[in-house]
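Retro notes (design track)

What went well: tokenization of the new backbones is finally stable.
What didn't: we kept losing track of which sequence belonged to which structure.
Fix going forward: every design gets posted as structure first, then sequence, in one message. First example under the new rule, 509 residues:
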């Protein structure tokens, strides 16, 4: 019997959930027979939220490593503890607040006085309030100040400042998240995330991101390509372009060229980098998928067959209340367009259950849309009231017990549909980029298919970074298991960096 997969509680994109990225930086041993030198303090970074937050934390860590910091065991022995926070859901904020309070209490009991700091979205939205409620906190930095972390830590550690709060806007901050931890540590990475923009102009009624991240600000294509070229030269095989709404990239800076938006122009420029094997992006907005982007999947072979397209609801009435800017019918049309380019296109999404005013009829429309699309995976979220958003003042809130019931019912449908799509791959051969040892079983190796499905197989360190053909033998919990012995472990030729025009087999409006 094939095990039924369970929907993961944390998404790999920008609209909520938890993924802890723990980056610990430790005291570097002093070297003998050298002049007296400064001993750098140890630092630990814990990340709440999306991949954008993870990328921000990685950049901060890389900056600190460049100043002499190195890896350390955990937060309990660190001289500096930084929590990079999320504000998409109240639960995210409460976890970070609880964690910081716990750390402060442990430090008091140990008789230690570590530097404690909040970074990111909650820091941006709450500012000095965090220090007033937790006086042990020394540092509060907003979403446009990550690159200032090292300098501010120097001021605190040297005693030049007692407490620092900086949540001001800063021109050009979108171009400051560019350092990568692997490079700073002198090790190779198979994949990397590259931040292409900051901010959001969508103003969905449930979302606080426009307030915490500010308006859309894009980096230049030349700057992004240079960063990607450096990564590829260091051995990176796959790059994921990151932004709150990546399909909004360069709207003001890059006018359309031959019908191709600024974002598609960026995809073409990164795609042309020699040595790059795969290209991904997250998160887009459904209304950002024009004909040019749909066609790009067909004519750019390095652009993989995976689209994470947040639908949020299957009800037109709720989509309008959310201010999403598209209809149920347009979303279904988009999925058909994507799968007309690649029938095996992996389509994943986000869905909010229990938005204010959601009736059972609205919920049934969402269930129906999921059955029609058959998502490869969906990240389900129970609606969370966010202070300052339009939805927070809407009438007819859905009772918690109803939200929980709907969440469980939709989860069961998503699991059933995903199991069907994963099981359909048994016996097929999939192209897999090997990332390294499996996170669940380090004795085996894992990688990802072009449609973003994890594959576990019996491999070795020599396969890290290789692109292999693996036959799928069975499925697990959102995991495929491949047999390398049947197909062999030969490299697959790299895709050409072609940008030839492609035409959809069906009319796209």
């Amino acid at each position: 019997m094939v095990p039924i997969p369970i929907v993961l509680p944390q998404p790999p994109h920008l609209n909520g959930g938890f993924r802890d990225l723990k980056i610990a930086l430790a005291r570097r041993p002093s070297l003998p027979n050298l002049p007296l030198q400064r001993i750098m303090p140890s630092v630990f970074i814990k990340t709440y939220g999306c991949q954008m937050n993870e990328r921000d934390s990685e950049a901060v860590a890389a900056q600190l490593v460049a100043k002499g910091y190195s890896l350390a065991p955990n937060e309990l022995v660190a001289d500096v503890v930084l929590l990079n926070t999320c504000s998409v859901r109240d639960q995210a904020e409460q976890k970070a607040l609880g964690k910081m309070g716990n750390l402060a209490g442990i430090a008091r009991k140990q008789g230690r006085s570590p530097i404690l700091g909040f970074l990111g979205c909650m820091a941006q939205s709450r500012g000095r309030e965090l220090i007033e409620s937790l006086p042990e906190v020394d540092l509060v930095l907003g979403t446009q100040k990550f690159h200032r972390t090292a300098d501010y830590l120097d001021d605190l550690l040297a005693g030049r400042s007692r407490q620092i709060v900086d949540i001001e806007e800063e021109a050009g901050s979108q171009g400051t998240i560019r350092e990568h931890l692997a490079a700073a540590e002198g090790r190779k990475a198979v994949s990397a995330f590259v931040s292409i923009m900051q901010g959001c102009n969508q103003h969905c009624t449930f979302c606080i991101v426009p307030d915490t991240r500010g308006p859309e600000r894009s980096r230049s294509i030349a700057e992004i390509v240079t960063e990607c070229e450096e990564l590829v030269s260091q051995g990176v095989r796959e790059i994921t372009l990151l932004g709150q709404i990546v399909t909004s990239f360069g709207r003001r800076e890059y006018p359309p060229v031959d019908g191709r938006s600024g974002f598609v122009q960026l995809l073409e420029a990164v795609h042309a980098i020699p040595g790059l094997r795969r290209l991904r992006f997250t998160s887009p907005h459904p209304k950002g998928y024009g004909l040019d982007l749909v066609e790009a999947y067909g004519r750019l072979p390095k652009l993989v067959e995976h689209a994470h397209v947040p639908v949020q609801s299957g009800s037109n009435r709720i989509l309008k209340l959310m201010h999403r800017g598209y209809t149920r019918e347009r979303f279904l049309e988009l999925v058909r367009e994507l799968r007309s380019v690649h029938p095996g296109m992996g389509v994943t999404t986000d869905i909010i259950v229990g938005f204010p005013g959601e009736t059972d009829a609205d919920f049934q429309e969402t269930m129906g849309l999921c059955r029609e699309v058959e998502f490869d995976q969906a990240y389900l979220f129970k609606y969370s009231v966010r202070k300052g958003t339009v939805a927070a003042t809407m009438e007819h809130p859905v009772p918690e017990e109803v939200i929980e019931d709907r969440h469980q019912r939709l989860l069961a449908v998503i699991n059933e549909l995903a199991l069907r799509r994963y099981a359909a791959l048994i016996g097929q051969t999939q192209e897999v980029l090997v990332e390294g040892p499996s996170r669940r079983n380090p004795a085996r190796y894992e990688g990802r298919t072009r449609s973003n499905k994890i594959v576990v197989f019996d491999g070795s360190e020599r396969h890290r970074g290789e692109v292999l053909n693996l036959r799928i033998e069975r499925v697990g919990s959102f995991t495929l298991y491949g047999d390398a012995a049947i197909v062999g472990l030969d490299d697959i030729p790299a895709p050409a960096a072609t940008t030839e025009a492609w035409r959809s087999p069906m009319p796209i409006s």
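Added context from the reviewer: The chain has 15 helices and 20 strands.
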